[in-house]
Design brief:
Blueprint: H1 2-18, E1 64-65, E2 73-74, E3 90-92, E4 101-108, E5 116-125, E6 130-131, E7 140-141, E8 147-149, E9 168-178, H2 190-197, E10 201-212
Parallel strand pairs: 2-10
Antiparallel strand pairs: 1-3, 3-6, 4-5, 4-9, 5-8, 7-8, 9-10
Length: 213
Amino acid sequence: MRRSILVILLLMLGLASCGGAPTSDPQPAPSPTDLPQPPTGVPPTDSPVEEEMIEEEPAMPFELTSPAFMHEADIPVKFSCDGDDISPPLAWSEPPVGTESLALIMDDPDAPVGTWDHWILFNIPADKGELEENLPVTGKNQDPGSIFVGNNSWNRSDYGGPCPPGGTHRYFFKLYALDTTLSFLPGVKKDDLLNAMEGHILAETHLMGTFTR
């Protein structure tokens, strides 16, 4: 009997010394700062990236027009030597950036004696977008701007309208955007003007009309 009680006591002491199964302390949950962070400046992969598409408007072409006649159409009689012989109204779109002045040449490549010059203008202000009908330019025009006039094939400094000896002729109004102003005085001839413009033309355009006699 004593032996049984002793065995029981020894078993109870052994269990007490073992303390039961070992337990571990619970670990705290990681804080947000402990979690891996994406590199600075890189958006999270789960966030949408909006790309703003900026579309540049295409530049308008440099174009010369007239409210009096269409390109390759008949020039009204009033602008010819059979009518009032006054200059037609002209208008153009904005010239390219860097334009300092404009020049205008009207000529007839179908003249029997070779190309005939009808009207030569230069140092037209870059911010001017039109020439009114019957432009009062003779020599140097003071209003508006400082538009200079060269001499045409009649050796005159005014406008000379279409006046073919017969048949249908083409009349070209050629407009040049220049990166400079020209130092010529009024009365310069077309060839000298073209030589001075060489290397300074940023853009050019033309309007062609016809006239028949």
